[in-house]
Amino acid sequence: DIDLDTVARAGIHLSHAPNGENRIHHNRIVNAMQGGITVDSDCRAEVYANVVNGPAFGVFVRGSLDVPVHDNLLIATGYGIQMAGTVTRARVIAYQNTMIIPNGNAAQSYSGGDSGPHVFVNNLIVAPTATASRPVLGFDLTGASTADIHDNLVLPSIDAAHFVDAAGGDYHLAADSPAIGTGVDLSGMGVDADLDGRARSV
């Protein structure tokens, strides 16, 4: 439950933590100049239920395998989720995130070691302005070996998402949002609550 506003470096940086169950959750990070949350160098971690609003990436996974990133709200970040391999490969399993990214793509991987195979499912991607479609619109995964990308909803603008009050900072979905009822059932993965802790089925 960390609340950070205007940070010169990264908001949260976890490094060299290969053991145990490290969880980064329920934090609010605003204007972290070097990105919101970094999982770095052979870490075991789960990143969920965070709000990141800032000019760089939302979540960066570097040299860490099988990192679940889910139920986060990533706003106005250069990239929603960024991945890079080192000596150790990077692999992200990203689901049920809302990424509002008028400055880039939902996800980017880049060279520096093998990266992937990544999984992206049931993510809401709003207003991506970068033109990369590798392998699909909103993604730039040229550095990844393979990726499983399905059942994400990409919308062209914030207005198209029908948030309750985006201008006022309320990114809950309005009753007529096209994002309601889309996606696939992930209850088998233990996905049973949203960012607010309310029960969800998809």
Folded structure, characterized:
With 202 residues, this protein is mainly β. Helix content is 2%, strand content 41%. It contains one helix and 21 strands. It has one helix at residues 158-161; strands spanning 3-7, 12-15, 22-25, 28-32, 37-40, 45-48, 51-53, 59-62, 67-70, 73-75, 79-84, 92-95, 98-100, 105-110, 118-121, 124-126, 139-140, 147-150, 153-155, 163-165, 170-173. Strands 1-4-7-10-13-16-19 form a seven-stranded parallel beta sheet. Strands 2-5-8-11-14-17 form a six-stranded parallel beta sheet, with no helix packed on it. A six-stranded parallel beta sheet has the order 3-6-9-12-15-18, with no helix packed on it. Strand 20 (163-165) and strand 21 form a beta hairpin. The longest helix is centred in the C-terminal third of the chain and has 4 residues, at 158-161. The chain is globular and about 45 Å long. The protein starts with a strand and ends in a 29-residue tail after the last strand.
Give the structure's gist in a few sentences.
The chain is 2% helix and 41% strand. The protein has one helix at 158-161, and strands at residues 3-7, 12-15, 22-25, 28-32, 37-40, 45-48, 51-53, 59-62, 67-70, 73-75, 79-84, 92-95, 98-100, 105-110, 118-121, 124-126, 139-140, 147-150, 153-155, 163-165, 170-173.
Number of strands: 21
Low-confidence stretches: none
What order do the helices and strands follow?
A: EEEEEEEEEEEEEEEEEEEHEE
Strand content: 35-45%
What structural class is derived from the secondary structure elements? mainly beta
Main sheet: strand order:
1-4-7-10-13-16-19
The main pleated sheet reads as:
7 strands, parallel
- The shape, in one word, is globular
**Quaternary status:** single chain
Gyration radius, in Å: 15 Å
Chain-averaged pLDDT: 86
Distance between the termini: 25 Å
Supply the number of helical segments: 1
Share of helix, binned: under 10%
